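A common beginner's mistake is to predict each chain separately and then try to dock the pieces by hand. The better habit, illustrated here, is to supply every component at once so that their relative placement is modeled jointly.
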Amino acid sequence: MSEKATPTYEKRTRSKTPLIVAIIVVLALVVAAVLYFTLGRAAAPREAKTDINIGLVLEPTSLDVRANAGVATGQILIDNVYEGLVGITPGTVADIQPVLATEMPEISDDGLVYTFTIRDGVTFHSGAALTVGDIVDSLTTTLVPDNVGFSAAIEAVGEQQVQITLEQPNSLLLWQLANTPGLILESAATNNLQNSANGTGPFVFSEWKQGDSLTLEKNPDYWGEPANVETATFRFFPEGRAAVNALKDGDIDVHTALLPPLRAEFEGNADFTMVRAASTDVFTLAYNNARAPFDDIRVRKALSMAIDSEALVASQSGDAKVLGSPITEGEPGYTDLTQINDYDPEAARQLLAEAGQQNLSLTITVPNFYETSSLDLITSQFAEIGVSAKVNPVEFPTWLSEVYTNHDFDLSYVDHAEARDFGNYVRDGYYFGYSNPEVATLYAEAIANTDPAQEDELLQQAATLVAEDAPAKWLFNYTPTNVVSSHVSGFPEVNTNSRVNLAGVTVE
Amino acid sequence: MTRFILGRVGLLAVAWLLASVLIFATLRILPGDVALVIGGSKASPERTAQLREALGLNQPILTQYFEWIGGVLRFDLGESVLTGASISAELIEKAEVTVPLTLLSLAIVLLVALPLGVFAAYKRRSAVGQIVQASSVLVSAIPVVWAGLLGIIVLSTWLQWLPSQGFPRDGWSEPWLAFRALILPALTIGLIEGAILFRFVRSATLRALEADHVRTAMSQGNSRLRALLAHGLPGVGLSVVSVLGLQAAALLVGAVVIEQLFSLPGLGRMLVTDVGNRDLTKVQSTILVMTGIILALGALVDVVHRLIDPRMKGSSEE
Amino acid sequence: MRVLRRVMRTPSGCFAVGVFALVAGAALVSLVWLPQDPNAASASRLWLPPGAEHWLGTDGSGRDIASRIIAGSRVSLGVALGTGVLASIIGFALALPGGLGNRPVREIVAVSIDVLVAFPTILLAIMLTAVFGSGIPIVIVSLGVAFGVSIGRVLRAELRQVAGADFVLAARVAGLSKFRILVRHLIPSVRPVFVVQLTLSMGTAVLAEASLSYLGFGAPKAIPSWGVMLAETQRYISIYPATVLWPGLAITLLVLAFFLFGDALRDALDVRDPADETAEVTP
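With all components supplied together, the output reads:
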């Protein structure tokens, strides 16, 4: 007992400390070594694969392809699971080719009656054969003014033909038929459209694990050229970093719409190629034209002139093109309008002074899934002309209800991904709150025109008028970069933000 | 004792019902209309109205509440208004990721906090004790997101030991792969939460070392260590048990951030997505189930606490 | 003051006070002067490395990181203080009736605390954000409520225990009024626990702000804040690690200061051992 008090004992206790440190260090080393040998198994050599994993940024909220607002549902299901009488030719933005129809329709001379002959031997994934009845039912549901802006009568002619009759010629009919409204669903099907899909395409819907992935299997009974891959899995990466890691880990073979600054991750990496997909995406800063002060054209012009589109495009690392109107290159009606209301902060300030709006304070409502560096630039550029802008990121549903439905906003920042959506600028009650009777007349004439050249000319005139009116700033045409692993070939290179057609894709 | 447990269970039921009212009330004030989301931007006002009717959104709020809670009591959590999928089925599917993740993190928390906490208190004046103490404070001060990112860089990008994100699509059919996917996320949150529990364990041990009965044991000739282990630890265990329920809850909730960071298809990530999509019924039911679990854990902790705490036996608290 | 001096005598206390001074100083200075406009974006200077003009470089929108870090101190400090004040109020408001009231009151408070504690902080914040829009006040309110409840829970348990302790019984026997017992014995004896909980909560509030910002429910974009900076740049960590390191480091330092300060404070307060108090009270 007395030993406890002696200095020698004290010394011995202290000398234990290094021992404990040593034990801990050794333990840590052992653990590290064990971990290294068990976990650090070098990536096994890749076996030949028959499946492909594709990373997408947004996940569908529902699989109901007709009703859904987001782009993700169509991205996955159109072409792969659902098909229409006609579709978009792979590799183009807006060229149309027959799909479930044997050839392009016969069109009557007055442009009112379209006659389609349907393919033989097409079956739905449920096993039922495609009939003219399915086509009539599907199109009768979707070709209504609320949905497509015009009405049409659809009837079967015998067992093999379907006739669509319009009230007036409409150049948009084939376009609509090649997109969501034209998709053919089985009339007798009883599946829940919100969480399953039953179409005629080269892939069969297999499983949707929400928050993770959606899987398609090859359709062995496909009427056309069967798919090259057995399984296609779409995985969802709202987070750019996770997608990059997944690509590098080999969890996904392709990632669509890589965040521009992340390009640096793959530059000079031979395992991946980066492909910039042409698209019709227009990032649109819409002004609430119906509300003061945006009902004053001087204010709208001033805001448009405050924005330096070149700088915005530069901030996208080249994944964007400057745009002067809502119509992108490759769509009918495109003409270079970048000179109209071009960047000129001095003139913008003057216009604001004329309008008596030197101290504008605005809110930009924006769905929260966009990368926001371009918004930082916009608010900075607005500040240059004395306009203070606040960015209000909201959930997409909130954007839908506040901006889209209730028109309760100043400015809105959103990607208008659809092709041929110029009609929004003449649509009554659309959220822009913009109307110009002259544009409406020109647009109506354009789409009623059966001659494509004249249609193009009229649309150009309409677009020029709209650009002059500045109901919105068309910030840039977004051409996203897809990162494709070197063992994948044939991945679509156009418009992958709207549809990812996997028919020609092969994996080694 | 039986009376205490029964009383506690009754309390649990009341608390759970109160929580359900709270959740329902809060969520029903959310702006953003689920009918609009389902209908999409192309839906006509008529279609939206139809949807509202079909979803029961037009019924009086009380009716909606009672239909919901009645369903829950019959173990029917309802269906997602967006996808029509059964919520219970999906909760079970997501729980396959979140529950193992939470348990694994809890294991790491305990493995880190208990031995180190007792050690650091016992050796509070030695250099090692001080270092352990200091590093625990440092670790608990690191933002989870940042810690996860650093973990990814070191363990995945540099050393390539662990996958940096995701969960095997086939779930637990390949247990090793699934387990591997959870290690880094569990380490991230386990170490940080462990550092927090460590503080409790250390101070509880310090208190124990100064407690009369431990001192008495020491004065009776037991070594300091023996006195602590034999007489002090029960008190430490008591303190740990009382915070363990909260700790488990913190891990369950921490999963929201962790699952987002590591792209794990679990409950937390589902919840964030569903809140964004305004999938009201699903959010409601998910939160109710989660709060139910947390409440039950709290009750369990109380019962255990009561069972092992000699002081509580005579008290009038029920 | 004596306590503070005692705190300052420990290295961790010194460190904590130093960090507080630094952060508070930065916050004050940022009100009148910043090296650059923290919100000025420019496409001509994206992702610049640190240099003479931009001390810590620029981010993906071309904004000066150093200025944003300095200006961001206001938000973190504000969130910490706001949460602390609100949490203390809520904590005591729950703990006093819950720990010392008569039985029905205690039971009601116990149930409410149980319900509220079970309500995940992050979810509370998400729901409040969705209802009232995102913003720093919402962050403070949700964190203040959440931490207030957990402080209340701990304090309540502590008060229950202390209320049954010998020295309180003795004080009661000695005929002290309830209020005097509360002020002179009960509150002082739960003070160490309260202080530790409070500093922990304030530090944790800064952390929670970062998590909420990461999920997109934090401070608005227009106001520079460390949490938002971390959230905005975290996806580029493997290309531009420095831009992610700075806000993370700033958060860690401030939180560390709170935690260490709490420790030092508790050590300083712990000197007044429960045993001493018993001695003081016993007549």
